[in-house]
Amino acid sequence: MSEKIEALRGELGTLCERIGRRVQIMEVCGTHTMSIFRTGIRSMLPANLRLVSGPGCPVCVTAQRHIDAAIRLAARDGVIMATYGDMMQVPGRDGSLEKRRATGARIQVINSARSALNLARENVNRQVVLLAVGFETTAPATAATVLEAERDGVENFSVLMCHKLVMPAMLALLEAGDVPLDGFLCPGHVSVIIGADAYRPVVERYGKACVVAGFEPEQILAGLVHLLRQIAEQRVAVENVYPAVVGAQGNLVALELLNRVFVPADTFWRALGVIPRSGLDLLPAYSRFDALRRFEIELGEDEDHPGCRCGEVIQGKVDPDACALFAQECTPLTPIGPCMVSNEGTCAAWYKYNRPAAATARSSSRRVKQ
User: DSSP assignment of 202-214, as one string?
Assistant: First the structure.
């Protein structure tokens, strides 16, 4: 352990003693969740400092109705569904994209939005649909791809819009008041686009501390130290300990792209329902690239597995081991909820890095009940 990490760990302990009560911080980003587990940061934290995961995994928050629409589209003759790999195993009402591909559907895993457009150019006799999932980090690439399709007259390309915005979800959690939080470890990747100042409403309206941090152990621990300093000093602010990458105003070029192609819209989130102006729709000038309109697809209702608690996990209400399916019926090989599918999913992180501890806790709980 480096001297810097040891010093930050010591300061966390001192601050927690000074605060003298339980402190609960939400890390919003799925990459933070995975990094915290992978690097062993959880084992370094004082007993009265608890981290909970938030709705920062784009795969996990995608409503089942959108998964079902993607599966239905993929089954259509003449359609190629282009999707990022994390979406392949997400369960819908009638299986998953992976299972649909096994029965003959044309589903192509891509690594960029532009790859989907190139796929359309290479398959002029088929309709290519991009399953556009992600937060502000990936949405600008989708916007640029739509503009390129418009410029080049690519008519066999469309987008199933599932993009989400981080800030409305954070505000919705605070408005609901179901989870007591002292502050947020804000996502580094999204903050590159939206800027640190975007979190000011969290501070000004709800009085919660916000700190933008990177993903290395020192960066995460530094972010937590800054959060606990605010709490100990009884003040709230937006602080940025990732200044080499994140600015106050964000990436103005990327934000201009979003404003040029998209408009904020009410959208469905898994378990959170409809959050006003939390998604992105294509502006009327680009509506012909909207897959739902092009194929006249109506979104159905969500019908999640009755035993799956993924929705509570992404809201920070419960840890994965509170779900009876966790590491039993629900595993990375047999996922029941998206939190076990995604590389950024909280359940996947717990399964990979915290399963022995979770199993011990569950066993002890059962013995107590007996």
Answer: HHHHH--EEEE--
Query: What domains sit in the chain, N to C, each tagged with a CATH number?
Result: 3-58+167-240 (3.40.50.11750), 59-165+250-294 (3.40.50.11740), 310-369 (no CATH)
Task: Please give the Cα distance from 298 to 96 (Å, whole number).
Answer: 18
pLDDT tens-digit profile of 72-130?
999 999 999 999 999 999 988 888 999 999 999 999 999 999 999 999 999 999 999 99
Q: Which residues are CB-neighbours of 127 under 8 A, at least 6 positions away?
A: 76, 78, 79, 80, 120, 156, 157, 158, 294, 295
pLDDT in tens, 20-38: 999 999 999 889 999 999 9
Q: Which amino acid is at 19?
A: I
Distance CA 246, CA 223 (A): 14
Q: Calculate the CA 119 to chain-centre distance.
A: 26
Confirm if 61 and 314 have CB atoms less than 8 A apart.
Answer: yes
Query: What is the DSSP secondary structure assignment for residue 314, as one 8-state letter?
Result: T
pLDDT single digits (tens) 246-305: 999 999 999 999 999 999 999 999 888 999 999 999 999 999 999 999 999 999 888 878
The pTM (predicted TM-score) of the whole model is 0.91
b/e sequence 221-240, b meaning 16+ C-beta within 10 Å: bbbbbbbbbbbbeeebebbb
